[in-house]
Known about the structure:
The protein is an alpha/beta fold. Helix content is about 40%, strand content about 20%. It has 15 helices and 21 strands. NADP nicotinamide-adenine-dinucleotide phosphate binds next to α7 and α8.
Amino acid sequence: MQTRNFIDGQWADSHAGRTFENRNPARHDEVIGRWPASDAGDVARAVAAAARAFRSWRLVPAPKRGELLFQVGRLLAERKEEIARVMTREMGKVLPEARGDVQEGIDTAFYAAGEGRRLFGQTVQPELPNKAGYSLRQPIGVAGLITPWNFPLAIATWKMFPALVCGNTVLLKPASDVPASATLLFEVLEAAGLPPGVVNLVHGSGSQVGDPMVAHPDIKVLSFTGSTEVGKRIAQQCGGTLKRCSLELGGKNAQIVLDDADLDLALEGALWGAFGTTGQRCTATSRLILHRKIAAEFTERLVARARALRLGDGLEAGVDVGPVVNAGRIPAIAEYVEIGQREGARLVLGGGAARDGELARGHFFQPTVFDRVTPGMRIAQEEIFGPVVALLTCGSADEAVEILNGTLYGLSSSIYTRDLNRAQKAIRDIEAGIVYVNGPTIGAEVHLPFGGVKETGNGHREAGTAALDVFSEWKTVYIDYSGKLQKAQIDS
Ligand code: NAP
């Protein structure tokens, strides 16, 4: 595997020659590789290459750009297993989930490729005679993409493929916890034959690479996925030059379980939502809002099932929950456990690092459940981003929705009920970008919009045709073939 940046169609070390190390969080003694610790100089080179390539890439017909993305999709499918294994080794999610992450990239490639033959605009009947009017999408320029570590391939491709099919060129900075997955994606892009400079990859930290990207005047659109804290800072910086920026940020997602719900189904959903990807999904279920009539039984069954989850190296068959992404996450999650206890919630399962046997080789945290949580507690308000779920209770569907809405975030949500009327009201009243009925808070598909309201973002969406709006400008065209001056809106 390459362990360099990819700039202007060439693999290259950082100009300063510094590197950083990437280790397996399930086996901390295993070094995966060393990648360039790049800086503003490398960003400048990559942006210059992307700006040069934009001059010709924007003129390539969109269906032809789409054909290249079809080829990318085919090559990703051929290398799916290899990429998934590397992903599990570098960030810990269990192999079936890593395969799903790659599959999301494949699906996005084919979906965006198809857009090459659509990219529809509007044709209207103008109000004046002998006149035509239509709108078309145009690319913006160099797109800067900054991505988190929890979906190394899916999120990078959600941004990159719509950007490319619209005619932009791109610079990707992946999170420094996942340089290997991004590198394999670029090996595929190179093999697919994308022209030099159209796609560029610069490894390194948020401060040394991400920050200069945000500030660079030739990056015309910036798409960021990560924490709300960093997202707010980026929004302020972009505001200074009115740079277009799309922000997909944190969540504090809840699953509601009403008294008429299919409890077996709701239990499966809660386990998958709370502990899948070790709770490190932006859409993870970090709150369960249980109707009082079923709360005791549901809690007991949830705790029993969560206790039985098998922790371990995600490459091993039968492992349910992998490690957290790095050593620093263990004290960060443990701090929330302390906060929850101090606030008066009851810790009913887990609560600390898991260090038995082989687990001592990695960074594992026990599946953790708090009950007797009240809506104002910090563990019910703040994103923990680990295998921790807070259980709250409610007396009605309306109260459940009120609790669900009572945070600063609004990404994903879920309600389990057999009552269509209650479900419909919840769909209407929940403040979130995504609502699942009788399904967990996780499980997005690539052809529908993805994103959230309130402090989860700034109004943009990824995936589906909504992603095209981030990476294109509308141009409106009027053609007057009357041969005389016609004045719109002026009485004649
Ligand atoms: P993060 O710390 O905000 O980092 C995200 C990316 O931004 C990384 O590539 C990081 O680089 C970079 N970065 C850090 N500081 C920066 C700065 N000052 N300027 C520019 N870039 C900077 O988030 P994370 O820990 O990777 O990811 C977890 C967060 O992402 C959670 O809050 C989760 O909810 C959110 N998330 C949201 C969605 C969504 O679609 N809404 C999806 C997935 C994750 P380095 O890490 O290399 O320093």
